[in-house]
Amino acid sequence: MASKATASQKKPSKGDDGRAVGADASALDRPRHSLPDAETCTAVHEKMLVIRRFEERAGEMYAKAKIGGFLHLCIGEEATVVGATQALRAGDYLMSTYREHGQAIARGTPPKEVMAELFGRSGGCSGGRGGSMHLFDWERRFLGGYGIVGANLPLAVGVALASDYTASDDVTLCMSGDGATNQGTFGEAMNLAALWSLPVVFLIINNQFGMGTALERHSAETDLSRKSSGFGVPGSRCDGMDVLDVHAVVSEALEKARRNREPQLIEAVTYRFRGHSMADPEEYREKEEVEEWRERDPIASFGRRLAEEDVLSEERQAELDDEAVKLIDEAVEFADDSPLPDLDSLYDDLYVYSENGANAWWTVDERSPETHRGEAERDSGDVAHELAEAGAAYAGAGAGDAKARKRRRKQDGGEAAEGEQAAADREDEGGGD
Q1: How far apart are CA 395 and CA 376, in angstroms?
Q2: How does pLDDT run across 65-79, given as a tens digit for each residue?
Q3: Same domain, yes or no: 320 and 390
Q4: Rounded to whole angstroms, what are the CA distances from 425 to 34, 74, 281, 396, 414?
Q5: Which of 282, 302, 337 is the last residue of a domain?
Q6: 328 and 397 housed in the same domain
Q7: How confident is the model at residue 6 (pLDDT cuts 50, 70, 90)?
């Protein structure tokens, strides 16, 4: 078994051209950017605070079983998320990975709708159907998070192609993780974007690990900004812990893609302070390494500078933090009060039908006595609903597991064999594996 990489092993070296080859953002030779106006500074700081408090509360709700499935937090990456999205126009498209709560909030989706989606409630931005990894907000042109690594890369190319076909100046910003650069979709997407001169910017959020695998162990080239140049897509880097640097680099890339139809790739060197997901035991990195990166906390660093340059006082920053906590409190309350999706909506939004009905998809639903269009499930009649209730009863909904098992044994023509009965009894007592 390979030993864990230590913080000292992850220090960057210099390439032949003098560029930093490693992934430590503090080693990047980046300029110090001037602060924008006070109103913008306040808005940026506030967004990062809201995202941080949202993610912290989401982790708490997951621990309380309010949120099911997987949960990936972006704590530590707020500067990358906010700096990049601040550079977008209202008409631009944004696509992300499964770590996308912050992106949705930064793009303008109300935190209460994001939290309700995490809860699986109908008040969520995806109607409670997508959950943590599949947020979607068409109104704000946020085209979703994607659970499969690298899956959004070719889709972003398709969206950019649509902009090109319609002669629009809208640009697609596609965010992916460092691990996505090793997927086959990465090369395919870069090649087509360059070949067709599409208005798309690929932002690689390099948080140092592909799940639990350190960058230098999964990528032969650790300067990820170089990995697209062979396909004709020029790359650049930014300090992902500096919201101003991210904004400057992304703004420049968006302009090149928009005006010159030159696709771009950016590597944002950042770090996640929490594990890959809430299920991550974090045994692959040293505590000292995490603490080193925490010293460069993007929110604290930006806040100190705002105070030093008399743009936003520490007292006002504390007030904004309190307001962010209150906003997230309200989001949790909204999510708790929002109802679960109705059973009758199970087949809604599965297919898109043409106006003339040609080539329509049909579905056979075991709850219903006849074949029908999936979209017609709501109107399938009383028999279908009676069958649905019977199916729920058969599955044990609203009843204990032991009762459901006994009912199934009886319906199957008799009691279970003696050995099966004994095993079932052990499970009922909590002694089975």
Answers
A1: 24
A2: 999 999 999 999 999
A3: no
A4: 70, 44, 33, 17, 17
A5: 337
A6: no
A7: very low
Domain count for the chain, please give it.
2
Retrieve residue 85's tokens.
Answer: 């999205």
- DSSP for 156-206? HHHHHHHHHHTT----EEEEEEGGGGGSHHHHHHHHHHHHTT--EEEEEEE
The rounded distance, in Å, linking the Cα atoms of 242 and 240 is: 5
> Nearest CA to 254 among 85, 83, 88, 78?
88
Residues, the chain, total? 433
> Is the pTM of the predicted complex or chain greater than 0.85?
no
The answer to whether the CB of 125 falls within 8 A of the CB of 109 is: yes
- Domain interval for residue 384: 344-427
The answer to whether 141 and 94 are in contact (CB under 8 A) is yes
User: What gap in Å lies between CA 78 and CA 60, rounded to an integer?
Assistant: 19
Buried b (16+ CB within 10 A) or exposed e, 114-150: bbbbbbbbbbbbbbbbbbbbbbbbeebbbbbbbbebb
**Which of 178, 189, 260, 272 is closest to 225 using CA atoms?**
178
Residues 304 and 372 in one domain: no
- Give the β-pairing of 172-177 and 93-95: parallel
Nearest to 361 by CA among 370, 351, 376: 351
| Count of beta carbons in the 10 Å neighbourhood of residue 30 | 18
pLDDT, tens only, 229-277:
999 999 999 999 999 999 999 999 999 999 999 999 999 999 999 999 9
At 302, which amino acid appears?
F
Together in a domain, 279 and 356: no
Are residue 184 and residue 132 in the same domain, yes or no?
yes
